[in-house]
């Protein structure tokens, strides 16, 4: 059985955080519900469109948190990653629950969110969910939860920032390994230059003892 690569797991967690955060931010800026307000006669009804950030302000906030976690995963190590994983679980669950609530129509619309028109205080508010964008928020939340589970279970064993550049070989007391210098074989040109240098120094290279004259 092939061992799991910690770097691939880290990369997967980062991608899950980035994808979940991006989808949450995109969903939060779109229409989640069409609202129809029926006011007392003779006032006409009022129609409005509410975005995800209005109905569920925590969705874009958690989206930013997921994007930030994608960077923090590289910087943190050990127990710090475990704590971050728990935060990811909470953020992902919050986004997912917000999407589900919008899909089932369990959203609270404050008349103050509809503006300051006359008669809104005593009006009847009918909300029709727009399915597409809350579903995207649900997907974003699931991605955040998956990232959190992966970080909590496996994050402590992943490499940290700059770990790949650390030297692991045995060295001197300073911990730095001495550079190894390779010598190439001596060529005829090297021997020729050495002979000339010996002559310049007053030594006959043909003598066995190499004594200067």
From TrEMBL:
**Entry annotated with the keyword Transmembrane:** yes
Recorded hits in InterPro entries, A to Z, give:
Trp_biosyn_TM_oprn/chp
Name of the protein described by the UniProt record: Trp region conserved hypothetical membrane protein
Q: Where is this region: Disordered?
A: 164-213
Record the organism: Klenkia soli
What the entry lists under Pfam families is as follows:
Trp_oprn_chp
- Sequence intervals crossing the membrane: 57-76, 83-104, 131-153
Q: Where is the composition biased (Basic and acidic residues)?
A: 183-193
Q: Which UniProt keywords apply?
A: Membrane, Transmembrane, Transmembrane helix
């Amino acid at each position: 059985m092939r061992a799991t690569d910690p770097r691939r797991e880290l990369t997967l967690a980062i991608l899950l955080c980035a994808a979940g955060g991006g989808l949450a931010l995109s969903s939060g800026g779109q229409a989640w519900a069409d609202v129809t307000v029926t006011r007392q006669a003779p006032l006409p009804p009022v129609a409005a469109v509410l975005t995800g950030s209005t109905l569920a302000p925590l969705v874009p906030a958690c989206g930013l948190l997921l994007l930030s976690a994608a960077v923090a995963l590289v910087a943190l190590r050990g127990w710090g990653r475990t704590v971050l994983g728990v935060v990811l679980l909470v953020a992902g669950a919050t986004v997912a629950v917000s999407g589900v609530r919008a899909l089932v129509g369990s959203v609270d619309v404050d008349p103050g969110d509809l503006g300051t028109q006359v008669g809104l205080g005593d009006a009847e508010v009918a909300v029709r969910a727009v399915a597409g964008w809350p579903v995207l928020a649900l997907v974003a939340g699931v991605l955040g939860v998956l990232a959190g589970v992966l970080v909590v279970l496996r994050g402590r064993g992943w490499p940290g920032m700059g770990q790949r550049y650390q030297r692991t070989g045995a060295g001197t007391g300073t911990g730095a390994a001495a550079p190894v210098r390779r010598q190439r074989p001596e060529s005829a040109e090297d021997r020729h230059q050495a002979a000339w240098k010996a002559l310049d120094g007053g030594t006959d290279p043909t003598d066995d003892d190499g004594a200067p004259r």
